[in-house]
């Protein structure tokens, strides 16, 4: 679950229509931890 997006000096609480941009800093919580698959989704690398 993405719980916050930092974009420049702004902190955004994501909603269903929020778009993640290149360079955004994402705060995410995961019941099972952050896996290689999750990292790949956000960064393109494992």
TrEMBL record:
InterPro entries: RCK_C, RCK_C_sf. Pfam families: TrkA_C (PF02080). It comes from the Archaea. Residues 1-45 form the RCK C-terminal domain. This is TrkA C-terminal domain-containing protein. It comes from Haloplanus ruber.
